[in-house]
Design goal:
Helix 8 (about 240-255) links the parallel strand 7 and strand 8 (about 260-265). The protein folds into two domains: about 60-165 and about 195-375 and about 455-520, Rossmann fold (3-Layer(aba) Sandwich); about 375-445, Dna Ligase, domain 1 (2-Layer Sandwich). About 35% of the residues lie in helices and about 25% in strands. It has helices at about 15-30, 70-75, 80-90, 90-105, 105-120, 165-180, 200-215, 240-255, 265-270, 315-325, 335-340, 340-350, 355-360, 360-365, 370, 385-395, 395-400, 420-425; strands at about 35, 55, 60, 65, 130-140, 150-160, 230-235, 260-265, 270, 285, 295-300, 330, 380, 405, 415, 440, 450-455, 460-475, 485-500, 515-520, 520. The protein binds adenosine-5'-diphosphate and magnesium ion (2 copies). The site of one magnesium ion (MG) has 2 residues, from loops. Its EC number is 6.3.2.3. Its cofactor is Mg(2+). Belongs to the eukaryotic GSH synthase family. Pfam families: GSH_synth_ATP (PF03917), GSH_synthase (PF03199).
Length: about 525
């Protein structure tokens, strides 16, 4: 299709067209669970003390134009990316070297590593590990060569709580629905058609990952004869609960698997490991039915990734308790740590041999170059020549403009952008060791598109930029010890996500209050 990014898409709407579109977005979203709970800054606790209200998730009115070559490539390399991160999580020795440096300056990383060490000392009882990953990209176009094909550049790789797989299938379906009920005016049609709106099976595909872990759980070793369940470890309050419910509902309807939600802060009061059991099954006691015990097959963490959630020593006790249990973790502590931004920086260093060594199997070797092509420039802030170069950028207001500084954190809102980098570095004081907890990344500048975002009942139109996430599911057996290699048992690409934000916004988090969920209109 001869469409380009500066085309007249999407078309302007008359007020009647806009009313029709919005009323359908509102109603379809609630009907189908494309919903969020309002943040307390939007609806105060006084107005909704029982937290009964839900509203349409922030969405774009139109699917955003996205280059098909980029979409296809991001999907094509996902299984190799899954293998890469499973291999890193399996290489405890190498990961430990990286973590050791970070742990000196980052208590959170240090505490996570200590949890792993404590379980290792006692001996792990579960060798299976589940990854539900999401690799995030922005489109990059060479500013000097307008004829060059657009490429994808990776923003980050998530190994814990990769969210929006539940809402993503639904926003794709919403935009298809709007097309089918003629809510998009005719000039839109050359762009949007059934073939430009690809299917997005993120819900069924991610749920299937949890289901295969559930089935692989080796209950025969203990055979408690208890009913089995999976447990979603969640935050409380959780505004994005409907995203998670979509997965839990699918587990029940398609796989007959029961899921419970357990706030991270209540793990120790509602789960236990029988002290006389060497297999260490994790037993869940639901608060609503304290006489019924369940054996937990799979722990799906949608919490526990932010230091703010670890409010006391009990929080760390809870994480250790879960890690040492026989339940399959999604993710294990090692997998969680493999998703550190520092690891991404090491892989992206051009002279680094690690990418090739982690992707040495014949099936994935052909992807090494393609994965390398997705890396933007990322630098350490240390004593190496690259590190010294990065520090010279990060301390110079003019040069820092094109960069983002990232600590080892997840969940949005933690990065420092452009002009704010030099004063931040200064605030760390003279101890350059403290710099090492951060990486410096070149800003990717995707072409601006036009779209409208419907958020908290308001429509904002203007220039936007998108971030494509591709989900990956991987189940593997951890290799423990030098002679025992890890083995990948299942590995697939699991659907996608497009998030779109106003061009002027630095962060893109939908839950963090910046962006919207979107779907791709391939061109
Ligand atoms: P988090 O783990 O907190 O989501 P990210 O690395 O994804 O951290 O950064 C948060 C957001 O910041 C991204 O969604 C994106 O909008 C923006 N961002 C991060 N890195 C870059 C980059 N190199 N270029 C442009 N934007 C970026
Ligand atoms: Mg992110
Ligand atoms: Mg992240």
């Amino acid at each position: 299709m001869a469409a380009s990014f500066d085309s007249g898409y999407p078309p302007p709407l008359t007020s009647e067209q806009s009313d029709y579109l919005l009323s359908n977005i509102r109603d379809w979203s609630i009907l189908n669970g494309l919903a969020v709970r309002p943040s307390s800054s939007f609806v105060s606790e006084k107005i909704d003390p029982s937290r009964s209200l839900a509203l349409t998730a922030p969405v774009t009115l139109f699917p955003s134009l996205f280059p098909r070559v980029c979409f296809d490539e991001a999907r094509a390399i996902q299984t190799a990316y899954n293998e890469l991160y499973a291999s890193i999580a399996n290489d405890e020795e190498w990961l430990g070297e990286v973590v050791k440096e970070l742990a000196e300056v980052d208590d959170f990383i240090s505490n996570l590593w200590d949890v792993h060490q404590a379980v290792k000392k006692e001996g792990y009882v579960q060798d299976l590990s589940l990854g539900i990953f999401r690799s995030d990209y922005m489109v990059h176009k060479h500013p000097s060569n307008l004829d060059a094909k657009p490429e994808i550049k990776q923003v980050e790789f998530n190994t814990i709580a990769s969210s929006f797989g539940g809402l993503s299938t639904k926003v794709s379906a919403l935009h298809k629905h709007l097309l089918s009920i003629s809510a998009y005016p005719p000039p839109t049609l050359p762009f949007i058609s059934d073939s430009s709106l690809p299917p997005n099976p993120s819900i069924s595909s991610i749920s299937r990952g949890i289901a295969i872990a559930h089935k692989a759980y080796n209950r025969s070793r203990e055979n408690t004869r208890l009913p089995l369940c999976t447990l979603f470890i969640v935050q409380d309050p959780e505004n994005n609960a409907f995203d998670q419910h979509a997965l839990a509902t699918n587990l029940l309807t398609d796989h007959n698997i029961l899921t419970f939600r357990l706030p991270f802060s209540t793990v120790l009061s509602h789960t236990h490991i029988p002290s006389d059991s060497p297999f260490r099954p994790l037993i869940y006691t639901p608060p609503h039915s304290p006489n019924t015990l369940y054996e937990v097959t799979t722990l799906y963490f949608r919490a526990g990734y932010s230091p703010a959630e670890y409010t006391s020593q009990d929080s760390w006790k809870a994480r250790l308790h879960l890690e040492r249990s026989a339940a399959i973790k999604c993710p294990s502590i090692l997998t969680h740590l493999a998703g550190s931004k520092k690891i991404q920086q090491i892989l992206a260093t051009p002279s680094s041999p690690h990418l090739s060594s982690f992707l040495s199997s014949t099936s994935s070797a052909e992807y090494i170059g393609r994965i390398r092509d997705t890396f933007a420039a990322i630098y350490p802030l240390d004593d190496t020549p690259e590190g010294q170069y990065a520090i010279s950028i990060a301390t110079d207001a003019d040069k820092a403009r094109g960069y983002v500084l990232k600590p080892q954190r997840e969940g949005g809102g933690n990065n420092i952008y452009g002009l704010k980098i030099p004063p931040f570095i200064k605030s760390l004081g003279n101890d350059s060791k403290k710099y090492r907890g951060h990486i410096l990344m070149e800003l990717i500048e995707p072409p601006a598109l036009r779209n409208s975002i419907f958020r908290n009942g308001d429509v904002k139109s203007g220039e936007v930029i998108g971030e494509l996430g591709v989900y990956g599911v991987c189940l593997w057996r951890h290799g423990r010890g030098q002679k025992e290699e890890g083995v990948i048992l299942e590995n697939w690409e699991a659907g996608h996500l497009l998030r779109t934000k106003g061009r002027e916004s630095e962060e893109g988090g939908v839950a963090a209050g910046f962006g919207a969920v979107d779907s791709v209109c391939l061109i």
